[in-house]
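Internal tracking record. Fields below are filled automatically when a chain is submitted to the structure queue. Please do not edit lines marked as system-generated. If the sequence contains nonstandard residues, flag them in the REMARKS field before resubmitting.
Queue: standard
Priority: normal
Entity type: single polypeptide chain
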Amino acid sequence: MDNRALAAAGALFFDDQGRVLLVEPTYKPHWEIPGGVVEPGETPSEACRREVEEELGLARAPGRLLVVDWAPDDAGNRVLFVFDGGLLTDPETIRLQAAERKAYEFVPPDQAAHRLVPRLARRLTAALRAREAGDTRYLEHGVELQA
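SYSTEM-GENERATED OUTPUT FOLLOWS
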């Protein structure tokens, strides 16, 4: 068994009402944030940019890092990066990749967690706190470690 951790990166986007962008995958039942796996030779920020462009049709560099989360998984360990995607002033520019995404919706932050699997809900909550505080948070399985 390969014990190396898989890395993935995603972004939190907001509309002018402060709602969070969630996407509905075609291949699993729960909503998520835009993002995906870091490919060999790619940095997490490069992967985030590529995934956002592939999934949403938006060519945007990610903002600052909000959260790094180590998470165990049945398939192995994962290291997950969440960047601030910033404000989307014109959601009409979103062009979903039909093969992977069937829908998107801006959801109030306090309601977003109800659409996500628990581990992503914890990560989202921590990322929202980090964004508000202007800092970066380290998590293990979605739980912040206190210094």
